[in-house]
Amino acid sequence: MGKRDRETRKNMISMILAAGRGERMRPLTDHTPKPLLMAGGKPLIVWHIERLAHAGITDLVINHAHLGAQIENALGDGSRHGVRIRYSREHPSALETAGGIAHALHLLGDEPFAVVNGDIWCEYDFARLPGRVAALESSKDVAHLVLVNNPPQHPGGDFHLLEGRLLPDNDRRPAGDARLTFSGIGVYKPALFAHLDRNAAAPLAPLLREQIALGRISGEHYAGKWADVGTPQRLEQLDKELRASQNITHA
Questions:
Q1: Which sequence spans correspond to the domains of the chain?
Q2: DSSP letter string over 33-77?
Q3: Residue 159 CB neighbour total at 10 angstroms
Q4: Measured in whole angstroms, how far is the alpha carbon of residue 154 from the centre of its chain?
Q5: How far apart, in whole angstroms, are the C-alpha atoms of residue 11 and residue 30?
Q6: Which of 65, 140, 166, 193 could bridge across to 19 with cysteines, CB 3.0–4.6 Å?
Q7: Which of 32, 114, 26 is nearest to 68 (CA)?
């Protein structure tokens, strides 16, 4: 690892998205924010924090809205996990993905940063992110996305990936080519969000599709363990799998 990579690894910022209301998770999320729901003996968001810390990524920004005080009370400044956490508070309601990132730009700085959805679980190696940040910074691209195999609940996928590039849906493709699903893990340049109103809700997909059409987004296919923990049933299944793998029993 060169000096540039070491500096990037040390200084890069990662944002964990934790502001969603979690409607599909009700009634579990009526009194507990989704990132604090338990799986395998620890909150979903703590899995991310620990893996980011293990990868040497210790400067974190977490946004929140619904029951956000619980997230701050549970995680504090992050020191117990070996990280530094700053919070981006969205009130009175969540600003969606792009809006939430725009709202937090003052905390994320001027360099490319990573973003991880707080409602996924995965074994993606976060130590890869600093290299993605460095590559993005030296290119004309505005984003790099991690794509995964399509889960049963999303068989149609989101984006086409060919030789490390995301392609528009209307491009001609080889026979049998299929779309992959966006994992919720990405690296972005701040410029992608700089034009947005920092206090207005805005989805991410339209921004991405606009830049894909301009040929400015790279990607990779991660084929390892990944789960979109979007319903109580999927949370229960993940919890069972994690407990079995760790020989954890319910109290």
A1: 3-243
A2: -GGG-EETTEEHHHHHHHHHHHTT--EEEEEE-TTHHHHHHHHTT
A3: 20
A4: 17
A5: 36
A6: 65
A7: 32
pLDDT in tens, the chain (251 residues): 344 444 444 479 999 999 987 677 788 778 888 899 999 999 999 999 999 999 999 999 999 998 899 999 999 999 999 999 999 999 878 899 999 999 999 999 999 999 999 989 999 999 999 999 999 999 999 999 999 999 998 888 999 999 899 998 765 555 456 789 999 999 999 999 999 999 999 999 999 999 999 999 999 999 999 999 988 999 899 989 998 887 544 44
Cis peptide bond upstream of 92, omega within 30: yes
- d(Cα 25, Cα 97) in Å, to the nearest integer? 18
Distance CA 63, CA 95 (A): 10
How many angstroms separate the CA atoms of 72 and 44, rounded?
Answer: 14
- Mutual angle of helices 3-11 and 129-137, in 10-degree steps: 110
3 state SS of 231:
coil
CATH no. of 3-243 = 3.90.550.10
| Cβ–Cβ under 8 Å, residues 66 and 20 | yes
Question: Which pTM value belongs to this model?
Answer: 0.90
Cα dist from 128 to 9, 39, 144, 220, 231, whole Å? 9, 24, 12, 11, 29
